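Methods — Computational structure assignment.
A single polypeptide chain was analysed. Its primary sequence is given first, followed by the predicted tertiary structure written as structure tokens.
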Amino acid sequence: MTTSISKTFKFADYDEAQEYYQANGLTDGLPIVPPTGAKVQAMLDGAGLQPSDVVAVEGVRGKTFVAETVAINAVMAGCKPEYMPVIVAAVQAISEPQFNFHANSTSTNGVGVLVLVSGPIANKIGINSGTVLMGYGFRANATIGRAMGLLKMNAYGSVPHDMDKSTLGHPGQYSFCFAEDDDVIPWEPLRVEKGFTTDASTVTVFAANSPLQVSTHNYSQPPEFLAIVSHAIQSLGLGSSEVVVVVSPEILEYVRSSGWSKAQIKDFVFKNIHRTGSEWNAYYRTEHPFSGDDLTTGFPVVASPDHITLVGGGGAAGAFVSIIGAWGGVSSVTKEISTGR
């Protein structure tokens, strides 16, 4: 047993603890799991950490995330100790300067932290990559994502009506976590694309807007269904730094049959998410109207094919794609998940 570095409180019962956390703005509005000393210690043990270990120092405000603070919020979110290595890697990722955690925690845009897991750890700890991929019913998805939201509030200070200026927000601010499904993709997994080995497990974080589900039923050729996807991406306008495209297994079977590579798909989509300055003006999707030669010049939603992330997952039935725009001025970050003790 290690020595806690946090202030402790005593409550008469479970209900009193709940009301304390609610009244003091220490929760996201949902009930929490009281972070008892034993539960926090088990969470620390899950990643082989001591309470005072520094997990990360956030790159903009210089905020330090210590292990015990991370563990406390993971317990509050309902996590199991085996989830802790994923949360640690995610905290390290959001703390990188290019993620600009401060800006996307204060902006009116209202983004949430999307935690996208790739690798063997997903199956090991039960992160869902199949049916109801972004929905309910899976503890690992729900609580890992929720832990990031609670840390944003309790360790970083981004709370509604104060530091968090989200105009609307979206449900992903409660929790937004899922895994890539290696069994359905006809190409290399995201972790390999990011430079890691097949045996590694990684987490990639995005400053994510709400997902947009797109139907491509009745189309089985890549140029057909990708044209639909591209048109939907155009609806994001010019303010996104990246876009995540989650492709269902049914569509991935069409991709497999066609022989199209991940690079081909990215190139096709990128070429088809351009609009001329005149078109952007007409659709009111630009803050600063184009003029002169820009009226006939094409401008894409994102800067290059590399700013399009393709992942596979979801239920076996249904030709659906989910499009998730990432807030402008922020870059996604990938970190390897350490499972060593």
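Note: Residues 158 and 315 are 34 Å apart (CA to CA).
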